[in-house]
């Protein structure tokens, strides 16, 4: 399985910033609860204080996160040597499935942007979308309040098919048997 799919799935399901996914630690992941969640950590300004926000986890996000269990005692998304994984490393890994599907290369922030657009298309208020994305100013949420073009939805559906971690793992298990 392409390692880049896992944080991509989490970002698409939670609206997390890359830095929030990168810093996610096991002690702040609660997948055993009736309503699973994690605590995402961000810092608004360099040298500023860290702020944690609770983020609900969908079944897809829980599956993606749990698939990383045992890779590192602390970080949810570690590099091969156990340190924080670099954005560039994962982005280059994510380009491969996009190339296979003849899709444009999307950054992790664009996936977050897509999550915000999907949330607004569900009819959620500006405040709800801002809370979901961890934004303190609803002015920043304005960019998500426009409707997505139909061709973008087709791209999103194809990406969703490529990122479907459960289906891929089931296929891998079937091949092994």
Protein architecture, described:
The protein is mainly alpha-helical and 177 residues long. It has a single domain (5-176), classed as hpI Integrase, Chain A (Orthogonal Bundle). Helix content is 48%, strand content 9%. It contains 8 helices and 3 strands; from the N terminus they run ααβββαααααα. It has helices at 5-14, 18-22, 59-66, 87-100, 108-121, 126-133, 150-163, 165-176; strands at 29-30, 37-43, 50-56. The chain has a 3-stranded antiparallel β-sheet. A hairpin with a 6-residue loop joins β2 and β3. It is globular and about 50 Å long. The two termini are 17 Å apart.
Brief overview, please?
This protein is mainly alpha-helical and 177 residues long.
Search tags:
three-stranded antiparallel sheet, 177 residues, 8 helices, mainly alpha, hpI Integrase, Chain A, 48% helix
Topology diagram in text:
Elements: H1 5-14, H2 18-22, E1 29-30, E2 37-43, E3 50-56, H3 59-66, H4 87-100, H5 108-121, H6 126-133, H7 150-163, H8 165-176
Antiparallel strand pairs: 1-2, 2-3
Helix pairs in contact: 1-3, 1-5, 5-6
Number of discrete domains: 1
Global morphology: globular
Biggest sheet: strand arrangement = 1-2-3
Q: How many alpha or pi helices? A: 8
* Radius of gyration over all CA atoms, rounded: 16 Å
CATH fold name, please?
A: hpI Integrase, Chain A
SSE arrangement, N to C: HHEEEHHHHHH
Percent strand equals 5-15%
Broad structural category:
mainly alpha
Tell me, rounded to a whole number, the average pLDDT.
Answer: 79
- According to DSSP, the number of beta strands is 3
């Amino acid at each position: 399985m392409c390692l880049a799919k896992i944080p991509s799935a989490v970002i698409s399901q939670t609206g997390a910033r890359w830095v929030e996914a990168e810093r996610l630690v096991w002690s702040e992941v609660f997948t055993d609860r009736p309503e699973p969640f994690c605590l995402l950590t961000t810092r608004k300004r360099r040298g500023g204080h860290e702020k944690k926000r609770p983020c609900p986890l969908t079944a897809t996000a829980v599956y993606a996160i749990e698939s990383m269990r045992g890779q590192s005692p602390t970080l949810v998304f570690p590099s091969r040597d156990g340190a924080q994984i670099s954005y560039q490393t994962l982005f280059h890994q994510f380009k491969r499935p996009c190339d296979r599907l003849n899709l444009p290369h999307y950054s992790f922030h664009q996936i977050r942007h897509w999550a915000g657009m999907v949330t607004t298309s569900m009819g959620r208020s500006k405040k709800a979308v801002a809370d979901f994305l961890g934004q303190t100013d609803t002015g920043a949420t304005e960019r998500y309040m426009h409707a997505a073009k139909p061709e973008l939805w087709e791209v999103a559906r194809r990406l969703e098919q490529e990122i479907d971690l459960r289906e891929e793992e089931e296929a891998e298990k079937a091949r092994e048997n």
